[in-house]
Amino acid sequence: MEKITINEVLEAVAGKLVSGDSKGVVSGVSTDSRTIEKGDLFVALKGERFDGHEHVYEAERKGASAVLAGRRIKAGSPLILVKGSTLDALQKLAGYYRMKYKPVVIGVTGSNGKTTTKDMLASILSLKGKVTATKGNFNNLIGLPLTLFDIDSETRYCVLEMGMNHLGEIRTLTVLASPGIGVITNVGNAHMEHLGSISNVLKAKMELVDNLSGEGVAVINTDNPYLKDTLKFIKRKTITYGIKEKADVMASGVEFNPGDNSCSFTLNMNGGSQGITLSSFAENNIYNALAACSVAGYLGCEAGAISKALNAFSFPGMRFELSDRDGIKVINDSYNANPSSVEIALEEVRKAFGEHRKVAVLGDMLELGDKSKVFHVQAGRAVFKEKFKVLITIGSQSRYTAEAAIEAGMDKNNVFICPAIADALKELEHILRKNDVVLIKGSRKMGLDEVAKKIG
């Protein structure tokens, strides 16, 4: 972040300086007193289980140059008081700061693949200039504003991942960040606890397209049936991509090489073609690459440079991460899970390792609300459909997956219902044998990466 004055902060958040001097500056913004750095503005957020106002002393002790609060508190540094929530003030300040600079801002959302797409696009664009991109899981109403503060006068591109749990959140993020390009990777069954239906998931994702700045450009996966049906309603420039349906940007000649964890395809874009090889055997990563290529091509990146970046791209951990231990292939896809991504993962493994004995280790899919049982049952049927020989479930909801797999026709002697990871590991000790392929997948809070660490 480049320095801004306390007077600028006051103006951006419509705040009142109740103590200290307004002539100072801040060189960063933080909401976490544990990691605050000297010169940062400390924003005291208040949530259901925490209150940043209780940690002002620690923030100042570590060098905070000012404090933004929602109530009067004792502070030794300049104290900025706001009438509304401090989260709203954080977002207003981030929006003000973002508009001080003019990078090309790209928003990326979708039920699956948005992190990988964001990382791929950032990797490509970094060949043309400085890129600011979302780090980790900073893709929400708190994280995205903090990402915007990483922009500086040298930033040429800003690639923002946009997540959500409720309708209206992506609209807020889009208005805040003002992207000129919006990517929707796909629409599937995710966040059903709060959204309730696939139509609401689609509506939530389309908030990005509907609120793009200026004329805006929407980048859409035309192979996704929900998105394909929306194309005729989008009243702005669109760039489509896909493998099966005709699109502006397409992959042809796709070849999968699970043995060396790679796939290759020919990128067809802007009237030309270019070969690309990815260090992943998963088809969904070709879609992620096509999304990144669509944006990069629109921004003037040459096909050769795009290929160079993607050929060297390292995929994020815990996302279809393949390892081999004593002849047992372990696919760690434990970063997160929703009904769509689980079915895709099962299908990908079946297509890649059809002749191998396949073992699924599936944890609970969270945030599904009253549809949780239905979706876990569907997952169980998919396990049988995709010809997995063994199923191990972890968690209270995943028992429905196990029961459904047995009902669908899976041998009950090969299905194990485990309440915890430790129980699953004990079963795996006796089950696994050379040449097995193990898929590990569940919601992030289930912590199934621990299984991968122990057996991978």
In the CATH hierarchy, the third-tier topology of the largest domain is known as UDP-N-acetylmuramoyl-L-alanine:D-glutamate ligase
Fraction of residues in H or I helices: 25-40%
Cα shape: globular
Query: Total number of helical segments?
Result: 16
Number of strands: 22
Given this structure, which CATH class of the largest domain is correct? Alpha Beta
Overall mean confidence score, pLDDT: 96
Give unreliable regions as ranges: none
Strand content: 15-25%
Distance between the termini: 40 Å
Find the structural class using helix and strand composition: alpha/beta
Question: How many domains?
Answer: 3
Strand order of the largest sheet: 9-10-8-11-12-13-14-15-16
Structure characterization notes:
- The chain is α/β, with parallel strands linked by helices and 456 residues long.
- The protein folds into three domains: 4-85, MurE/MurF, N-terminal domain (Udp-n-acetylmuramoylalanyl-d-glutamate--2,6- Diaminopimelate Ligase, Chain: A, domain 1), CATH 3.40.1390; 101-311, UDP-N-acetylmuramoyl-L-alanine:D-glutamate ligase; 321-455, Mur ligase, C-terminal domain (Protein-Tyrosine Phosphatase, Chain A).
- The protein contains 16 helices and 22 strands.
- The strands form four sheets. A nine-stranded mixed sheet has the order 9-10-8-11-12-13-14-15-16, sandwiched between helices.
- Helix 4 (114-125) crosses helix 10, helix 12 (339-352) packs parallel to helix 13 (372-385) and helix 13 (372-385) crosses helix 14.
- The mean pLDDT is 96.
Quick summary:
The protein is an alpha/beta fold and 456 residues long.
